[in-house]
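Tutorial, part two.
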Amino acid sequence: MEILIPTWINGELKPVEKMKAHLQGLRHKAVSVFVMQGSKTLLQRRALSKYHTPGLWANACCTHPEWDEVGLECATRRLNEELGIVGQTPVYQDTVEYSADVGNKMVENEVVEIFVVRANKCVVRPNADEVMDYRWETLEDLHKKIKSKPEKFTPWLKIYLEQHAEKIFSNYAS
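Running the prediction step on this input gives:
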């Protein structure tokens, strides 16, 4: 099934097939969700069947809204589809932009709505088609692990932590 995502063409938002947006490096909308328990954040290891960055560690959920979908609905939907997380309300933090080579001749050129979930209790039931593993990591340990083995992490997670950590975590890390 062809998934159409909101993409800017000549300064105007248009529906474009997701793979085309990535292969041509077109600027498009995205959503990222961080799930927090105190100073720990939920990480997922992307399934090996993913079309880019398979087997790498990422934040809880990263995706693209469908053409007619708003960010909050997308964030909530994908938390359930990827991690089986329900009953949590993502809170909008900020919008950031980045561009990164994600392999297989693809570029993520994204305008990302960042959401954070504070989950005191959180049942995680990963979808094996999306996620091969998950773990909770303190932000301090995550920074250390990315520094020592950057090849194990997605480009966007590294960018978020290096350039946007204050915007994302200022109200949540303890």
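The chain has a mean pLDDT of 94. In part three we will examine how such features are distributed along the chain.
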